[in-house]
Amino acid sequence: MNFSYGRGCKQACFLSTLSLLASISAALNSETCLGCSLNADENSPYSKYKDWEDAPASWEEYGHDNDEYVCGVPRLTVEEWEKGKYWQKNKPVIVMNVTEQWPAVDHWKKEEMLKRYFDADATMGEARLLGETGPDDAGHTLTPTTVGEYITQHMYDPLKYFFDRKLRAPQGMLDDCHPYPQPTRAYLEDEMAYAIEAPSHKKKVDPRDDIWRDHLAISIGKDLTGLSFHHHGPAWNVVIFGAKRWILWDHNRFKNNMTRQLRIVRQFDDAELADRIPPSDVRSHVLSSPEWIKYLYPSPERQEEIRAHGHDCIQRAGELMFVPRRWMHSVINIGDTVSVISEVGHVKGEGKTEEDFNYDPYESSDDDEEDDDEEGLSTEEKIRRRGPPPQWLCADENPTHPACIFCRKNPYNPVCGDEFIDGEDSSSSDD
After folding, report:
1. Do 179 and 101 touch, CB atoms closer than 8 A?
2. Are 202 and 416 contacting, i.e. CB atoms less than 8 angstroms apart?
3. Predicted pLDDT of residue 32
4. DSSP class of 409
5. By CB atoms within 10 Å of each CB, which of 198, 226, 274, 288 scores lowest?
6. Backbone angles phi, psi at 400, to 5 degrees
7. Residue 73, number of CB atoms within 10 A of its CB
8. How far, in Å, CA of 352 to CA of 337, rounded?
């Protein structure tokens, strides 16, 4: 049997670690470069919106006032966040006034960013698809670009959004975000500060993959862009310009219940999207975050579930949103939005290779041929290379896959992640 379980996943929510949002990176370039000006066509959005704040923002349709019944996330000062070590807790929080001392508040204004980082390497892709495959396995759905090219030529294309974590973040852009929020800041002083050991392994593990580091992912996107439902390790996201709407959902509600998960994040049946999505696309259509809010969120079942076991919040410029481990979340930009993200275990990228852009993330897992460089390797070593098999594969599509069998028999093996410790039956009935 072919070992490969494909580069991407065809479910709305992939169950692997993923880094929040799109990464931009390159070497620091503080000099003004020729050609860094906005698009010369004064009627294009690239010229019309000189500052991030000038662009349209869908507040009327997608914004709200963070009513406690709707949002319900505690709002903390930086001092409260640090003193209480809230990153070690399993509840979302919003931290206020995080960027007061950040050079990015000036250096990342639209025209200033173009002067400083125009030639910085970046990647772009369609947000709803990138949320499905994950940033490391997006393949040819990602396109290489630069910060300047994206902002001046592609940013207002609805199918273009930054989302990647492999690129090298330039030191200049990292410096613009000092002082880092804790616990990321502590890593610069002591690499083992606030080290987090994977709690579900039930034994000591090498903590180097489970600590907050100093690598930052940088996200830039226009109004109504943002990743569809996904989850990953603990992470914080700081908005520098613009705003974001977050739908957050407690991991405990879906970790052993694939049926509930799919009922909330996907349509119940084709009728739910009738007359909204072309009939030929309904069954396979992955909803974008705005589509989910507009078409599916109004259902009583979904609203009651999010109200009781999740949060629906607006995050504004200068604020940090903390997302706990494995909490499902969907994000929408309201207006042109620039943000920076840190995630547990998120190491500095080493750059994209040509192969990273060439493969098909949706290639069939039924291909009979195995990668030549994996011939003769043990199942454990193949999982170590590819990552843990996704739960949807083991539960629904191919439960006899060698990787699924191995991880069910060896749930505490670190190569299998945490999903097989949480429970073997991912499609069990309601609690």
Report:
1. yes
2. no
3. 40
4. H
5. 274
6. -95, 10
7. 19
8. 24
pLDDT (0 to 100) of residue 136: 58
Distance CA 399, CA 421 (A): 16
pTM greater than 0.90:
no
84-116 pLDDT, tens digit each: 999 999 999 999 999 999 999 999 999 999 999
Give me the pLDDT at residue 143, please: 81
- Give the position of tokens 């960013």: 113
Look-up of token digits 């990153």: 87
154 CB-side CA count, 13 A: 18
> Could you report the per-residue pLDDT of 401-411, keeping only the tens digit for each?
788 888 888 87
The single-letter DSSP state of residue 295 is: I
Residue whose tokens read 């207006």: 335
CA neighbours within 13 Å on the CB side: how many for 321? 28
The residue-averaged pLDDT of 124-147 equals 69
Tell me how crowded residue 190 is: count the other CB atoms within 10 A of its CB. 9
Distance CA 383, CA 260 (A): 27
Q: Where are the alpha helices (DSSP H) in 29-157?
A: 45-48, 59-62, 78-84, 104-107, 110-117, 127-133, 147-149
Residues 210, 364: Cα–Cα separation, whole Å: 32
- Find all residues with CB under 8 Å of 271, minimum gap 6, and list them: none
- Residue 323, classed as helix, strand or coil, is strand
162 - beta bridge partners? 124
Look-up of token digits 């009627």: 43
Backbone angles phi, psi at 109, to 5 degrees: -60, 155
What type of residue is 424?
Answer: E
- Residue 198 confidence (pLDDT) above 90: no
Q: What would the two tokens of residue 176 be?
A: 């613009």
- 197 phi and psi, to 5 degrees? -90, 135
Mean pLDDT calculated for residue range 393-400: 60
Query: What integer pLDDT is reported at residue 234 of this predicted model?
Result: 92
And the tokens for 261? 């998960």
Of 244, 246, 216, the residue nearest 317 (C-alpha): 244
Helix, coil or strand: residue 300: helix
Angle (nearest 5°) at CA 315 between 313 and 317 = 170
Do residues 166 and 356 touch, judged by C-beta distance below 8 A? yes
First to last CA, the chain: 35
Cβ 94 vs Cβ 75: under 8 Å: yes
- The pLDDT of residue 135: 57
C-alpha closest to that of 24 among 107, 109, 106, 124:
124
C-alpha span between 35 and 148 (Å, rounded): 9
Give the dihedral sign, CA 14/18/20/23: negative
- Under a CB-based contact definition with an 8 Å cutoff, are residues 138 and 70 in contact? no
Residue 96 CB neighbours (<10 A): 15
